[in-house]
Amino acid sequence: MRRTWLFLPFAVIPAAFWLLGNDALLFLAWWLAITLNGLIWWPLAARLLPAGDHGWTLAKGMGLALSSGSAFLLHHLSPFPFKRGWLIALLLLTAIIIWSMNIWQPKLTGAAVKPLLNIEKNNSWSYIGIMETIFALALLFWLFTRGLKPELDSLEKFMNIGFMNSIWRSESMPAVDMWFSGGNINYYYFGHYASTWLARLTNIRPIIAYQLAMASLPALSIVLSAAFGLHLMLSLRKPVISNNQGRFAKLYKSIAVALAAVSSGLLLVIGGNQHAFIYSDKSPVRRLTSFLISKSILPGSNEDAFWFANSTRYIGYNPETTDKTIHEFPYYSYLVADLHAHVINLVFVLSLLLIILAFVKRGPSISKNIRDLLRQPYYYLMSAFLAIFMMANFWDFIIYFALICLVMWIFFSRTTGRAVTLAGIPIFLLQSALVMIVFLKISNPLLALPLYLAAAIINYLIGKRVSDGLSSAGSHMGWIFFLAHLFALPFNLEFEPIAKEIAITVARSPISQLWVLWGAHIAAGTIYLLWLFFRQRRPKLRRTFPPLPQQTELAIESETSIPNSIKQAVTAAMSDPADRLLAAIFLMGVFLIVLPELVYVVDIYSGDFKRANTMFKFTYQAFVLLSLVWGCTAASILTYVFNMGSRGHSLMLNHTNKKNKLGSRSISSLVIAGLLIVMVLIPIWYPLSATKQWLGPLSRDRYRGLDALELFALKDSANISGSSPGELAADVSAIKWLNENVVGQPVVLESFGDSYTDYERISAFTGLPTIIGWQTHEWLWRTSEENPDAFSTVVV
């Protein structure tokens, strides 16, 4: 009966034809491609996360990353062509290897399939059916929204569709830069390759595949973030269920698991920051906002009507200052539909976070010797994803390498019994310096790689001299750093690194404005950590006489387990691996908000915008991490209350054999959980305010299809004098002719114009290179240590 859940996703198909018309066939082809590719990697994902959906959701993200990543690197290493038949053959070979051999041992057996044979034990079919249905519904909804606004002529869309078209025409990598004839794309474009890879598999041209890829990002992100909450509850935090508790216990457990999954997906993919709740026109706290502004507690003004982009351009804009910043988040990205690097890579980020969760579930262990270090399978898997980040969105490589190190430090500290020692601090500083000096000073990847290996070996050997969590993490981080660069070497050999100069921040954000943006997220995590800390106090027992044996045992535990120092209290609060993981993620999220207030990465942007890009990339991931923590808080607290209730049920406190009533600690915990649930209204206020502003009414009669060129032909372009719709119709005809008749990538001569305009439309929509395109973008892509003044030496 449980397998009947697998039929649930098929109910989406009639809805797709009703909503999308003939475009439903495209929807089905894209859905099938993602699902079949995930199926290839399912045995590996099932071994990592055997509970819940049995790794089914992780397999989707992992499959997209590793299948397309393998092909991408093969293009760089060999004449392996970017053709459909070759890509399908590689997928079939991958499927044979994964499904026929044991994942962890070098023996050709059917052991990889065995975990799938036990799927009934964990009720996994129902989880799989539900998660697949959520994915299909999300993909359908976001594809429908793309049909409401399918234009590709705003923001970064020319760049993104240009990359896809250029990759589509290429038979090898790196792909040709459509805006710099004679040159290759010198940008982190693997995410665009992965999208075009799916397009090639389904044989859907980029002009349509762009819309499908953009719709699949929130769909994959919502199920992957939900899977994080699901597996945190089922894999790391297991409710205590005794045999005599029956259906109520299972229902309680299901509610807690569902709450974590739904909250995580909702907060990360649908929610926004706190700005809209405070400043939007219909906000319940608008009068309070006006009062705070009048008393100069909040800067700026709320007199202007709220516009959904205001939540991403607040610091530096309200009030106007010389320190203008960017602080976007996923829902805004999905609305404006820029298929940009940081948006695509979020799918891979969430997949890595699930792998880190599986790593924690397994129990991070300190390698006894170098041979043991070489045989750690999770290090290879995490390094592979870090390598993908290097090729897709380099900022995420730094961020999540640091998170992995933080997780290892926290868990190794528990293993060694000491987080840090006096001798461990200089050891760790030396370990970090050995890696960072090479990273910052050596730009040649072939020269840097052996130096990274040497640093990894030295770090491991000197880390063995001190037994604490910090130096132990340092002894392992060099190996992961080396592996990531080894896996990304084929890409890095063809890539000229952008300069990596760090400067001290001069202007800083007012605390009140930081609170407006991230106050609710930080408050939710802080409340949870404080609850973890203070829950260690044991309640007083109502004693009976003579005391029951179980009651005496509980009383002894109550007297001996009260922490008598901060260190003991923190150790007790972090006794659960799920709590340690959430603490690490929360600390990293807060750190990413604080970091742009201290330093920024120097790039081509200067003056009022010099730290805008740094804040953008760091706080984007801060939002992701803090949303996941918040999503798991209320469910974790409810599980704790249930576990206490289960324990109280078995430890009778009187002779009448009645259940122990909820104590004051349980009641306060329920109040805190309720508060955290109600607070979700704050980030959810953003989509309620923003969606209609950008997309208009979500009505079926407004669906215009997925072909952006048809609408582009009707446009009254701001770059052509006069006011006349249909000015670009002839250009669209030329674009279609070129796409149908021109093979390869000969250079086209196209008039040059500024970035974020309709100039370079032919090269963008065909992938045929022109002499020079959007200069601001080329300026950024070509700026490196070798060309620090790329604007004057390369672009003009």
Topology:
Blueprint lengths: L11 H9 L3 H25 L7 H22 L6 H17 L13 H4 L6 H25 L8 H13 L20 H13 L3 H31 L9 H25 L4 H5 L6 H9 L35 H7 L4 H22 L7 H5 L2 H16 L1 H23 L7 H18 L3 H19 L5 H19 L1 H5 L8 E3 L6 H24 L14 H12 L5 H8 L3 H18 L4 E3 L10 H39 L13 H15 L2 H15 L12 H5 L16 H13 L19 H6 L8 H8 L7 H6 L1
Antiparallel strand pairs: 1-2
Helix pairs in contact: 1-2, 1-6, 2-3, 2-4, 2-8, 3-8, 3-9, 3-14, 4-8, 6-9, 7-8, 8-9, 9-10, 9-14, 9-26, 10-26, 13-28, 14-16, 14-17, 16-17, 16-20, 17-20, 17-25, 18-19, 18-20, 19-20, 22-24, 22-25, 22-26, 25-26, 26-27
In summary, what is this structure?
This protein is mostly helical.
Describe the structure.
This protein has 796 residues and is an all-alpha fold. It has 33 helices and 2 strands. The chain has helices at 12-20, 24-48, 56-77, 84-100, 114-117, 124-148, 157-169, 190-202, 206-236, 246-270, 275-279, 286-294, 330-336, 341-362, 370-374, 377-392, 394-416, 424-441, 445-463, 469-487, 489-493, 511-534, 549-560, 566-573, 577-594, 612-650, 664-678, 681-695, 708-712, 729-741, 761-766, 775-782, 790-795; strands at residues 502-504, 599-601. Strands 1-2 form a two-stranded antiparallel sheet. The longest helix has 39 residues, at 612-650. The protein starts with 11 loop residues before the first helix and ends with a helix. The model is unreliable at 103-113, 240-244, 539-564 and 648-661 (pLDDT under 50).
